[in-house]
Amino acid sequence: MVRRFRRSAMGLLAVLGALFFAAMGVGCALSAPTWKGSPNGHFDGVKFVSPGGPERFPDGGGAIGSFFKWQRESQRGPWGAYREEPYGAPPPREVPPGAMRVTFINHATTLIQADGVNVLTDPIYSERASPFDFVGPKRVRPPGIRFTDLPRIDAVVISHNHYDHLNLATLRRIADTWPAVRIFVGLGTKAFLESKGLTNVVELDWWDSRELGALTVRSVPNQHFSNRGLFDQDGTLWTAWVLEGKGGKAYFGGDTGYGPHFRAVHEKLGPMRLAVLPIGAYRPEWFMGPVHMSPKEAVQAALDLHATVAVPMHYGTFPLADDGETEAVETLNAALAAQPAPFVVLGFGEGRDVPEVQP
Known about the structure:
Number of strands: 13
CATH topology: Metallo-beta-lactamase, Chain A
Number of helices: 8
CATH class: Alpha Beta
Low-confidence stretches: 9-24
Radius of gyration: 21 Å
Strand order of the largest sheet: 6-5-4-3-2-1-13
């Protein structure tokens, strides 16, 4: 009996050990190259930090402990099963100088059109936000605009390298369709994209900029983190983006917690004609709050940016956190009743012309 128990225990330990090393192997294989550069105010020589500092887990449990605490205590809101929905109308091929238009496609994917230039933000058309096609968060609705109905894409801006924001299959499809497209990323992500066969990549540090036709594309600080695997944590720069043209500025927040960076952007660059802000994947707030702001905080962010129009995104596509499918928009509407702000909630596939900034 004792020998049999020992054999069973040893067999279980062998299986657990094999699973552990397999997980480590997958985590290592998925890890992306990290930035090699001189230290500065938000890079310590190895890792990047957000404007508010490196602390993300105020309960002191660390990343792993906090994650498992969330999983133990999770109270997930409801999400529907996948269903087909009608696509939105094809966007215009471009807008004239001085004009600006935004189309909400899905998740953090929007089309921003300004001064004859077309820019996609964090595009994802894949079925899953995952490194695998058989497991991971799965979409509950199709993208709001057919890929074949997109206008010419001149540029893509990527906020960071998480799978729901940097989707390789979609980027490859874009590059195959529009070979001249430029892909803008934060420091360190260029090497990863080039290793996957993607070229014409421009990487920028916070506050750096490049010209794109009639627009200036500028990287600006936000509050998040980065990784593709287990061994590249915070090794590449996360960023928000400002597109500036004749008709004003458009802000795309990517993934971000709430912090002083919104006011800093306004202080340096002035008011935003458009602010595209995340509102979803915010519960539980004790865990998500440092990296995913709540709808109420998004209202304050729009006010901090002095936005003429704010459009919410990062909701209703992939179940990523405890908030339910419609909860983020419902909470946003309640927050707006208490604190008015210029939000316009677009339907999936809906586009809207953005009015000019009033002097």
